[in-house]
Request: fold
Amino acid sequence: MKPIVAAAPEARRRIPSLDSASDPFSFVTDELQLVEENLLRAIRSREQTLTDIAGHLICGGGKRVRPMVTLLAFLAFGGKRTQDIVDIATAIELIHTATLLHDDIIDRADTRRGKESAYRKFGLKNTLVAGDFLFIKAFEFAGKFDETVVEWTADACALLTEGETLQGYFNRNRAVTVDDYVEIAKRKTASLFETGAKVGAYLAGANSASVEETHRYGLNMGIAFQMVDDILDVVGQIELLGKPTGMDLRDGNPSLPIILALKAEQTAVCEAFQTAQPTEALVTAALNAIKSGPIIQEAKSISRGYAEEALKSIRKFPPSLYRNGLKTLVQLIIDRDF
Amino acid sequence: MKPIVAAAPEARRRIPSLDSASDPFSFVTDELQLVEENLLRAIRSREQTLTDIAGHLICGGGKRVRPMVTLLAFLAFGGKRTQDIVDIATAIELIHTATLLHDDIIDRADTRRGKESAYRKFGLKNTLVAGDFLFIKAFEFAGKFDETVVEWTADACALLTEGETLQGYFNRNRAVTVDDYVEIAKRKTASLFETGAKVGAYLAGANSASVEETHRYGLNMGIAFQMVDDILDVVGQIELLGKPTGMDLRDGNPSLPIILALKAEQTAVCEAFQTAQPTEALVTAALNAIKSGPIIQEAKSISRGYAEEALKSIRKFPPSLYRNGLKTLVQLIIDRDF
Reply:
């Protein structure tokens, strides 16, 4: 995916030509710029430390996929009042960032997006509080909306925390199945995508069947997104990922390739996954075992299944360039290498 | 303060007789019962672990002072729609509980309210996520209200996090002054009191001058509340406090008595406060030094000054039994021994 290009804030939204129809970013350049401005405003605090920590991540190269899904769903259903959707897209990105800060504490992560993690740089206490700060700012943006939007957003967040807890339950736990995994991915990753998409359609005034369909779109593309993330943790390149591969094995997180390898009884993977603080040699052996067999192809095929489901939902949306954008986005997510 | 007595949920609110006018709890028994029911509903999660952790603290003997202030301020200004104020009082208690869970992680606390802390019992990860879960639930309750209430509540939370950060800056830092301390107490403790009181008056339909006055009431009583907390950390009884005394010295937190002792150059206090992990002998020596001099009297006198300010605000409220309740509450806070 290409980086977000800043547009003059006062610029009117350009309707992209058909030539650029393959680039979903170009459809919402101006709105994403407004999201960026909102984010920068949101992280301003009386305490410079909080601004610094939040800025470390907010300004650290996030792909803004969740705001983009939200904006595109809104526009695909004919939404007009851009400011509304920009605010909720901001809230969703703030929630995502808050969970990243807290995840780094939980995983004791050294790096995030190619830089030292906030947890390493600023310590547990400040990072924890900065995560809370971002949650609060998110709800300041989301709280302006009607009860339905507030409830959906809060539900998505509750699901996130529940997904985190469920994942913890299956940490280094060989009993984990693909079904368990999908349940975790639904809660932990898909929840913000499905909520963003659904809120987008709802605020655009779509009928309830369409809102339900955007929900399904977000759900399936979110699951696919997590699966690709997991695959990249095995086969990705460190320079593109911004972090080493094999993190799921080191942390004992049940990723899709790991679960498939456990099912195939790959000895090195079973051992690395179940060992607290596995050696680097063990992690490398496990990664090689996964890469040498059919596991990655199998995982890719499963993720494509979810992507296909997302595309099926899109076909039910009214035809528009924004619908095309949502479609291309699914393709980009499936094909991404970072 | 006496424990909350459960009332039948369907019971109509009783107007207390003048005989019970000295007990602010009796004025809002039914509403506090509704808050309790809300709290129990709020902590229900698909993940039992989250419910367990939240319940560990929610059902663990909180005094519900913040909801009480909110309810009394509402009733003192003639508020009628009780369900509204019960929901925001619930939100405020949930926010308070979320910060307690996160504080226990930050302080690596062993105990809280006389029991093992959630952090010790359930570990860092689950406790962190449970704190997030409660923040989210709080905003589900608060998000139903108009933009003003949402903004005030979010501001209070932002202040809380900023107070935590500022306190961290002065951790074991001898440069801290009483003014710094008051700034921390304003943000960390008074913010939820002042917001609860202000929202109460606002939702009751009070005019802006009255809303401002309830804000001042909450601010000053909140600062007094924190000061008494600090004093009890020196002179309190472990059985009543539910935790050992001297925690501020152990954690390097700049409490009011510590700051006054630093100013008076009490050697043992200077040493204990500035030492990471001071020995128990050093902590005991420092506590004895504080207790033997005029420090506690001085701290009590400062806290009474803030309580007096809170009482001045109350005098401007329209006369009612609820106003009496708010007044008594200040007295109870100043006189409390736990």
